[in-house]
Design a protein that fits this description.
The complex is a heterodimer of chains A (104) and B (253). Chain A is built from four helices and one strand. Chain A has 104 residues and is an all-alpha fold. Chain B has one domain: Arp2/3 complex 21 kDa subunit ARPC3. Chain B starts with a helix and ends in a 12-residue tail after the last helix. The chains are: A mainly alpha (104), B mainly alpha (253). Chains A and B meet through helix 1, helix 2, strand 1, helix 3 and helix 4 of A and helix 1, helix 3, strand 2, helix 5 and helix 7 of B. Strand 1 of chain A pairs parallel with strand 2 of chain B, so a sheet runs across the interface.
Chain lengths: 104, 253
């Protein structure tokens, strides 16, 4: 690796480290001050951040989320749609992958 | 017949694949009408330009529509399954965005409508995101994610880094900027209420990064890097046709 590349990589890694440390400090500050991040800690395990962060902060700001206009989150309906979407997605990836990578 | 099948597939892809994009979903009801309308207005020109570019490129580049189908599907799958990450708040899950990858292969403008269709179908069928917040979600994931990811890719390429690093930095930066966009949109909710926008947005962004998205964006970078690297090594003609590389001269990288 050339010297300039090494310098660039070092710069990028240091930047990531600084931003990471900054975020860590802010996160600690938020926890210490009982901000919604603490609420996030109290969420059920494996809760998505769409709920634990976005929903929490929006509620604190006076704009709580509400049910979608088309609410498919009923029983196993959502699971069915996810499975269907994932299956179709996987099939299309495979089909087009084959078309692009193997057949050309 | 083949052409017809291909068109049906792409149509299917655009309709059903792009469900996958709820990494940063702002749900229904969160954005007040004025902000919801503003984000729609911001997103509209990008979607229009992206759609126009798809129309133009599909004639010029062979295999462009199957590529859109594949990338759209990949974006869908990327963001469809919640990735468990253990971080500051314990066990949580989040979704990658996938727009860094789509921006590299399809270009940043085309990546916007792909993300937009994904978000729309999620809002319609998967109870993720929302119809009134669609503009805001397109702004964060589609516009900010795609353009920042493409810029990172372009910079890495100009620095003559290897294709893995093109994808790595595009994946990371797109993910970070997607969540930055969401933080900005949420932070704007406090404007006019006596609180500081910068404090609110900064705190939300920190919460994102400290909970799940920090580790996840690195994971997304690695996956995107491997995908770009794989295509570069096994089908460099695709990258040449898309204008991403100039023949094999780049092999010296």
């Amino acid at each position: 690796m050339r010297k300039s590349k090494k310098i660039i990589m070092a710069f990028l890694l240091i930047t990531i480290a600084i931003v990471g440390a900054y975020c860590h400090a802010l996160g600690r500050f938020a926890v210490a001050n009982n901000t919604p991040l603490r609420g996030a800690e109290e969420q059920e395990a494996w809760t998505g951040i769409d709920v634990s962060i976005v929903g929490k902060y929006a509620t604190n700001f006076g704009r709580p989320p509400r049910n979608p206009y088309i609410n498919t989150d009923r029983g196993d309906l959502l699971l069915c749609l996810f499975t269907l979407g994932g299956s179709i997605g996987g099939f299309i990836i495979g089909y087009n992958w084959h078309k692009l990578m193997k057949s050309r | 017949m083949k052409r017809l099948l291909s068109i049906i597939f792409v149509g299917f892809t655009l309709l059903f694949l792009p469900h996958a994009v709820y990494a940063m979903h702002i749900t229904e009801g969160i954005l007040p009408p004025k902000w919801a309308i503003l984000w729609f207005l911001v997103a509209a020109p990008f979607v229009a330009i992206g759609t126009y570019k798809i129309k133009k490129r599909r004639k010029a580049i062979p295999g462009y529509m199957p590529l859109i189908g594949m990338i759209g599907a990949a974006v869908f799958v990327f963001s469809c399954f919640p990735v468990p990450v253990i971080a500051l708040n314990g066990m949580a899950t989040a979704h990658p965005a996938g727009t860094g990858m789509s921006a590299i292969f399809l270009g940043p403008f085309v990546s916007v409508p792909v993300a937009g269709i994904a978000l729309l179908i999620q809002a319609l069928f998967l109870a993720h995101g929302g119809l009134t917040t669609l503009g805001g979600n397109i702004f964060s994931m589609g516009i900010l994610g795609s353009f920042s990811g493409y810029f990172a890719f372009w910079t890495a390429k100009k620095l003559r880094l290897s294709p893995f690093w093109w994808g790595f930095f595009a994946g990371i930066v797109a993910d970070i900027f997607t969540y930055l966009g969401t933080s900005i949109e949420l932070g704007l909710l406090v404007v006019g209420k006596g609180d500081s926008f910068f404090k609110a947005a900064g705190e939300i962004f920190a919460a994102f990064m400290m909970t799940t998205q920090g580790p996840l964006c690195i994971l997304e970078g690695v996956v995107t890097g491997f995908i770009v690297s794989y295509v570069y090594n096994h089908r460099p003609s695709i990258l040449v046709e898309l204008g991403i590389t100039e023949g094999r001269t780049i092999a010296q990288i």
